[in-house]
Amino acid sequence: METELDLRGLYCPIPVLRTREEIEKVKVGDELRVMADDPAAEEDLKRWAKRAGQEVLDVKKEGEVITVTIRRVK
Description:
The chain has 74 residues and is an alpha+beta fold. 30% of the residues lie in helices and 35% in strands.
């Protein structure tokens, strides 16, 4: 199952904080798709996922919107 989290218009550190909260709501093995337009969001979310032990499955950029898909591992 995949859940979407739209964080467009929010800037550091809010995208990471909201992603951390939301990942706790999805089941282990499920995916969270995070959309953000903060230029720092891609690196911030990838770093956070690695530290948190979660898996980044995909990163896409469409214009100014960055979409990071994260699988909850634990």
